Amino acid sequence: MKNTQILLATLVLAGMLFSCNNDDDGISVGDRATAILGQWEYESIMSDRAVDLNGDNISNIDLFGTQELQQCVKDNITTFTDSGPSDKPEFNVTENNLACSGNDPFSFVYEDFWTLTNDNSVISFENQSSFRIIEFSNNKLVVEKDDVFDGLEYVRTIVYTKK
User: Do you know which PROSITE patterns this protein is assigned to (predicted)?
Assistant: First the structure.
């Protein structure tokens, strides 16, 4: 009987250790509007088909780990706010340390307004196509976006890491 109690206590303790919450736990659908707020950095950008964005005649599906995107784009910061000067939730992309030609470091590259739609599974924008949320945790946001380049339709998957 005592061995059974010790075994049961050990199993309960082991279960508690392995089931504790950590920073990578998924965000509940209801908490997404708050959890998305803040600054995000690119971790990866992939395409569902090979594209040649930089015109070097080499097509890639990995848009982040290759030369398809300039380094000054790869280090941009994406920010979601709940309200800005317009009193609407704002989405903006800013230069980081490596500013592209003609831009100052930390200047705005793109601004838009966002809202969560489709039961908080889609990030909709006023001026660009929507992001479909594929994965969302405290430190990671994975979205898909339909895109077109040079007449070729493709799906871009962007992985963001919380800054």
Answer: PROKAR_LIPOPROTEIN
pLDDT in tens, 105-116: 999 999 999 999
Domains and CATH numbers, the chain: 23-162 (2.40.128.20)
> Tens of pLDDT along 21-36?
444 579 999 999 999 9
